[in-house]
Batch of 3 targets.
Target 1
Amino acid sequence: MMSTRSPVTVETPPPATMGIRQLPRNVWAVSLTSFLMDISSEMVINILPLFLANVLGVRTNIIGVIEGMAEAVASLLKVFSGWLSDRVGGRKWLAVAGYGFSALTKPFFYFANTWAAVAAARWGDRVGKGIRTAPRDALVADSIDERHRGLAFGFHRAADTSGAMLGLLIALGIVWAAQRGALALGEDVFRTIVLVSIAPALLAVASLAFLARDVPVQGQRAAPRFAFRSLGRPFMVFMLIVALFDLGNSSDAFLVLRAQERGLSVAGILGMLITFNLIYTLISTPAGALSDRIGRRKLIIGGWIAYAVIYLGFGFAQAAWHIWALYALYGLYYGMAYGTAKALVADLVPAELRGTAYGTYNATLGILDFPASAIAGVLWQGVGGWQGFGPSAPFIWGGSLALLAALLLAMSGIGRASSPR
């Protein structure tokens, strides 16, 4: 007798292993968008300090304010943008709006002829980044099975870094053709690079808008909350130590200006930045495996000590090649230790308080981005009638604070339990 029961439908689980070609459409779309936007951004942002100093004659105290405020704006907006994407019920269009906002700022760099105009364009670009980052990452996470998220984010990160390197190579090509051995950046060269950067920025927005598909929001995260006492003494002490380190962690714009001050040409500076990105790309994946073996606490302390040695080296460097070599080592620091402090936060608080802990962590460091760069600019060239302590001062300051932070973290014992036994 034939059964009248309906056949049971068995869902095929996602494969245990997945290749890059099997990645979902959204991962490819977001990766292409990041690739294109990083081509655009890295072409302009890395030479912006040279435009301010060489063409507009802006002092480092103003450059510090511009860069510090830019990073603070981006960091603080990231705290809220992920929550907002949950509230509006979608990731894609909030990310598109962020990319679009950044793309619209590009032409303003071309027309800027005062530091205030440059600041407005720079801050607008960072507003776009702050809006897009969290919903973009959530779009990737929501589009793929959790077993394959590592591959998805690794692919996205590779596309992002590849775009940065290509953008620097394009800028280097323009500088090489127009002012090969020049020490100072020419105004026409900067504006040419800005014009070239507009096309990939617009293509980035279009690729996300037309290729990505929104996905249902996976749950609702709570609104960002901030606290210190309720998160426990270990977290409070750790935040104080991280804040001390961050006060000396000024914008990399000062490293670019230091390279030029030591005699590196504009083309040489771009070559130095390409070297940094290459080393950072090559070291970051094996460094992640290293952190699993030796523990985050040891990696943070070692990373901060390395940062201190490198920054003190920037302070006492005597020749252009010293700066290039130190910047290559800086890529090792970034690949090995950058972001590890954030990972340690999860070990210091109960699972139900991690959202509050990360909100507090990100907001605190976002606020400190501003004084860190402002202090560096004042230390270099002073303010008002005071001429400052000179080009070495910001790096001696940053290196000293990093050493002190490493020492305090080692003495505190915080995070010791998270290290592998």
Note: Confidence is low (pLDDT under 50) at residues 1-12.
Target 2
Amino acid sequence: MSFSFNTALSGLNANSNALSVVGNNIANANTIGFRSSSITFMDVFSNAFGARLNGAGSSLQIGNGVRTSAIHTSFEQGNLNESGSPLHSAIQGNGFFVVRNSDGSSGYTRAGDFTVNNSGMLLASNGGQVQGYMAENGAIAPGTALSSIRLPLGQTIAPQVTTNATLRMNLNANAADGAVFHATMQVYDSRGTSRTLDLSYTRQTDGSFQMTGTLDGVPVETSVDGGAPDANPVSFVFDTNGNLTSPQSLSIVPDQTALNGAALPAFALNLRETNPDGTPGAFNVTSFAGTSSTSATIQDGFSSGELNGAAVDHNGVIFGLFSNGQSRILGQYAVATFNSEGSLQRLGGNMFGETISSGQPTIGDPGTGGRGTIAGGYLEQSNVSITNEFVDLIEAQRGFQSNSRVITTLNQTFQDLLQIV
């Protein structure tokens, strides 16, 4: 009879554990990156009752109850919700963010609610340093060692002088003789000062256009088809289809004495696009029957700029966004995978730790080697299903209640025996 009490008690303990697991899941239904758990049971070895075999040769055994077999962690993908921080990130697929904890140990997490401290260090929610690959001069070299990601707060990038420029425009083939069209664009000198290039096109009686130019009102020289610079007007000649036939190439040569100590070397004005295979492409300057207009201006210079934002792409590359409109690669998240992620140990603080059963992590770039990609500006939600948890809650409660009833019944049986005695 004592065994019956122990059997019922084991049922109470097992179902109490189930209630704890379900309760923990429900409590973390809104925890970023939380992985839900499920519990399984196994029976306790049975004792032989009386004779070991009955007449049919089958053993007579009564079980000794139940115990918790395992608590499994579900790594099913959670929903992704848009976040207010560009550095918040979610993994779509397999893997974990790598974190170096304050004690020097490594942790692994699906929670990408990262923040930046006053020294630019990217931190996980438990205060650990997020690991990845840092860039040098805007590039991540192959074989870069894993390290803590630090953003260069307040960084200023140097200006870049203009070396190439493109004006996409049409010069009206039906314009009156002597009509003038101005095409302007901004270029940058060596100190990052914006300069206005003004190119003036005057219609000629033969249908060509004569071009002259100024930079901030100061006349510039031009180099036509690789020739020596001079101040003569440049003749733009078009064929019967309105395509440019001359010049083939053109460079603008600013007056260096008018730049207040800065420099702006001669820069090319691209008159025609180049196809990917290196062959000549579309004309940037045409003369069709239509209003003279500039459709696009492109140049490769820029002023100095300060870091004022960041963005993350699907490969986990972190870009610094600067006040001058430029972007630079600052680093890249690292993603770890395990041979048996179900064997990872929960460390708290949304962290997992490796175990002998899980194996060592394989760390690399997102989107490679079976690792998931990164959704920048999003957070992965808990993968807890409230509906399923309520069903499990009812089942665990019924199991606990039923085992309680067994103990009540056994107690009443003992009372009846005592009354007989």
Note: Helices lie at 2-27, 386-420.
Target 3
Amino acid sequence: MNNNITPHHRFRRAAANVSMVLAVLVLAVFSSCSSDDTPKEPYHPNPDTYENVVLVYAVGSNNLYGNLIADKSEMLKGLKQTDPSKVKLLLLENIDPSNKGTQHSNILYEARLSNETDEYEFVRLKEFDSDRYATEPAMLTEAVEEMTKGFSSARYGIIFWSHGGGWAPAGYNTHIYPVQDPSSALHPKPDTWWGVDESGSQHDQMNIDELAAALPDNLLHFVWFDSCYMSGIELAYQLRNKARYLVAYPTEVHVFGLDYTTALPLILAPVPRLEEAARTIYDFYTYTCLTQGVQTPVTVGVFDLQAIGDVAALARKAFTGYVKPSVSNLPKYTRGNILPMYDFREYLLSAAAASGNELDAEEVNRVFSRFTLCKYASERNFSNVLIDPARYSGMSAHVYDPTNLGSNENFFRSLDWFKAAYE
């Protein structure tokens, strides 16, 4: 590996131009993803119940639109390795290929095996009001309701597909702010968020507390964020009563995101094989998606949210009499205008030391071993800095500053994680 190389990619958080080659590929896969525009009743190979139903909630009305088209093609390929009598894939897409993503259309699709071609295709089930944003919490709630109403299943999962930025607020006072004036006093420029739904002169994003509140309690087997920066303790704790497992990336993820051709058969197994699926994204960027022969940076973690109560209890011990630790030696996962986020376990240990709290090493190891099912990381991060495996937990955290009374810090104080770990 050339240790001096600095990777230059388009990530799921920043805009850039799409190459001519990629444009040709997008046009090629577009035809394979075309579908009947007439809404149809759900097709049930097994009319009683499925074992696993997964909804891909794709907010692609942004500069990732072409990648969504490509990922849809990958999904259809991956479905060939699944059992349609036991599992089902749904897709909520908030753009329409007929207008090339320039206008809103919120459409719920079902992936069906065609009787004529023996190939999978996306078929419209329902079209929601095109004036609405897919990042509206109510829109997410309705999509989940359609999933559970139309497809009885032993397990449900959601893959959130879009830009991502972590825990911090997208803005205040309204859910929509003008793109042309993102730094206005009423609508401060967002630093981090989940999802970007753009239309004309406006776009919208969703805060993590809104996202969690939009999901029903105790329904989901897993939540997977195919987005940058969403493997954070703040989001994980916010989702503690929503899903059993969380899969996410603490750093950026390359624009291609998850390789659905190889990952989806594992995610859509009758019992999702999440740890194996997480390994596929590491392998894809380590051995397949190389930049000039150099490994593309990648991080991913799989977490058992059933253990997060013990994580919070450990954090309370660490943060008693809280003194903000120095961040100079903490592994940092963010860059650019994204709010700084650091390795969660390393931050917890540093905060405990700075606050004069001695933690039992065996307890720390026991809690994290139950919480972290698996974690993978490349040799270097997106800033070309070495990742120390011994100091990589697979999850990020905000370093709390009690003296900061700014809007971001005040929003952090409103999150469930702050109340559980610091108050």
Note: The chain has twelve helices and 16 strands.
